[in-house]
Amino acid sequence: MPFTASIYRRPSEFPVAVWKCFKEHPHDSNIIYAHVQKVAFCEGLITDQSDLWVVCWSAEVDPSVAFIASCTTGPLGPYPIFIFTPLLLDELVYDVAQPCIQLIVGALRNHVAPERVFSVFAVDAVADTFAIIWMTETGVPPNPAPVYYHADFMCCTTATFKNGPQKPLPGLGVELRLATMLDASAVARLCYGFAAGSEPFVLTEEQALYEATLMIRAEQVWVHTIQEPGQGSEIACIVATTRTTDTVSAVTKVYTNPSWRSRGCAERLMRHVCENLLQTKDSLVLYVAHDNPAAAKVYERVGFVGYSSSINGMTDSWKEIGFDREVVELGHW
User: Fold this and answer.
1) CB within 8 A of 104, min separation 6: which ones?
2) Residues 73, 47: contact at Cβ < 8 Å?
3) Which residues lie across from 128 on neighbouring strands?
4) pLDDT by residue (tens digit) across 207-216?
């Protein structure tokens, strides 16, 4: 099957078919769609035209979207190359994936510097194919330890949500709420701790405070506070939901202060966040690392289930592959 590729610099340039694709696949497209909606909302105010989207089309009488790749920038720097496909994973055979990724790589080579492509994040088969073709075309190999992140994709809806019993915290005062600007410094410390365990995407203390401030102003971060008798309250855990569309919110950060771990804080706060957001959203999504089974169990107890875009029902697995850090310039996400 022949394919073609189109390049877009603004969401307003997208054909109706692209918007239709996003809306029909709100979960697995969230990694790109959320940023698109944010940019579209304030497009007239944006002077920086560094964002780029590549859409790969099946070249039929009525072309349909086969892949969408994004090369965009967030508040803390450039994002990885994100790639989404509406195709069932069972359909990602070599004759489909290879020519489409070849077109995406060709478009990126023509419009961005090789050092801008510091990593790619997509379902496993797509990420692997991109890394091979990118190295072949540019000479930039994957980093010696190339897999930065390998995760299952999970989803929670009103149908799967579990409002189960909470682990008690006897003698302690507990509050679950959206963060306020009075929490900025404390939230920043937890953002810093989260990033410290997310090599190579670490933050300075100043960057962590900037991130915390942005999330608080946008009402994207929730806190679990604990107060011991006779003491002031402190933030034990945070949950951030920074990728949001009309129908889906993505949980992008869950972190518990090491001093308050094994108290059920993450589960308690996640359940509160889901209960609140599911009043206005159809679902929440998140990625959970393969090597973090403890977190997966917490999410499962709250009601998250594996999301599958394949006929066999296997949970989608996504992978971030990083490229040679001697060549590329790291961004952040």
Assistant:
1) 5, 54, 56, 67, 69, 83, 130
2) no
3) none
4) 999 999 999 9
pLDDT tens string 270-285: 999 999 999 999 999 9
Question: What is the C-alpha separation between 157 and 242, in angstroms, rounded?
Answer: 18
Distance CA 234, CA 228 (A): 9
Measured CA to CA, the distance from residue 314 to residue 200 in angstroms comes to 29
Question: Smallest Cα–Cα separation from 257: which of 178, 333, 197, 172?
Answer: 197
Q: Which two tokens stand for residue 314?
A: 């296997």
Q: Are 277 and 284 within 8 A, CB to CB?
A: yes
Burial (0-12, 13-18, 19+ Cβ within 10 Å), 57 = buried
pTM greater than the 0.85 cutoff: yes
Rounded-to-integer distance, Cα 244 and Cα 229, Å: 38
Residue type, 204: T
Beta strands at 119-123 and 64-71: parallel, antiparallel or unpaired: unpaired
Q: Which residues pair with 299 in a beta bridge?
A: none
Identify the burial level of 301 via C-beta atoms within 10 angstroms of its C-beta, where 0-12 means exposed, 13-18 middle and 19 or more buried. Answer: middle
Sole residue written with tokens 């900025």: 184
What is the distance between the alpha carbons of residues 92 and 154, in angstroms, rounded to a whole number?
A: 20
Closest CA to 8 of 53, 41, 39: 53
Sign (positive or negative) of CA dihedral 85, 283, 81, 326:
negative
Strands 52-58 vs 64-71: parallel, antiparallel or unpaired:
antiparallel
Q: Is 60 left (phi over 0), alpha (psi -120 to 50) or beta?
A: beta
Neighbours of 42 (CB within 10 A): 8
